[in-house]
User: Fold ABC transporter ATP-binding protein from Halalkalibacillus sediminis.
Amino acid sequence: MIEVKNLQKKFGRKTVLNDVTFTAEKGEITCLIGINGVGKTTILNAITSLTSIQGGSITIDGNPRSKHIFEKVSYIPDAITMLPHMKIEEAMDFMDDFYQNWNQQRADEMIDFFKLNSTDKISTLSKGNTAKVNLLLGLALDADYVLMDEPFSGIDIFSREQIAEVFTSHLIEDRGVIITTHEISDIEHLIDKAVLLDEGKVYKEFRTEEIREEEGKSVVDVMREVYQR
Ligand SMILES: Nc1ncnc2c1ncn2[C@@H]1O[C@H](COP(=O)(O)OP(=O)(O)OP(=O)(O)O)[C@@H](O)[C@H]1O
Assistant:
């Protein structure tokens, strides 16, 4: 389990996260939801120690984060970090050299799944295919947890559907996933838990199935209540 407790984050004098607390379990998809600028990316950066925090704690399976965090947690940022002149196969080689937990078999499977051509250069890919390569590079790591920042952002419906399919496939297996979005419609039916952020706080954390069964509400219904109040 990833446990985020009373997280505080300031940029200069501006408080961005003010007492953020939530958990993300293995085998589940947890979605951080909130309008632009609410601090979703900052939370992922904090979990992976890419940004410092001013208070609170973050544990992974009960342990504080260490320099070996990337063996346990794979971070898929909202934009690809590979150099544009690289071919997809070169980007995969780079990952293989860099990470001990790179799984080429899973990478090859995703190349087939997304119908990508591994000799294509990253700079020549469409937005949708770039997003797929970005996803592939993160998901091919054997990590227990995967953090994904806005994987659906700015891509067409067919690519979004294909990416959504990954969430129900064995490519996610029993890993714990934290995904951020301000657009829930593509993944509403896939997520186990929603964490609604507002004004630097967790406004509501709920299991999507419970709210559906007990209150007959969708995630979007709850979002409307929270953000249009
Ligand atoms: N390096 C930085 N220096 C100063 N302010 C920053 C920095 N990074 C983020 N911020 C500010 O922190 C706030 C939260 O940013 P963050 O990117 O985490 O939001 P977000 O919810 O992921 O937004 P989006 O949906 O647009 O991606 C924003 O007001 C942003 O301007």
Summary: Residues 22 and 90 are 37 Å apart (CA to CA).
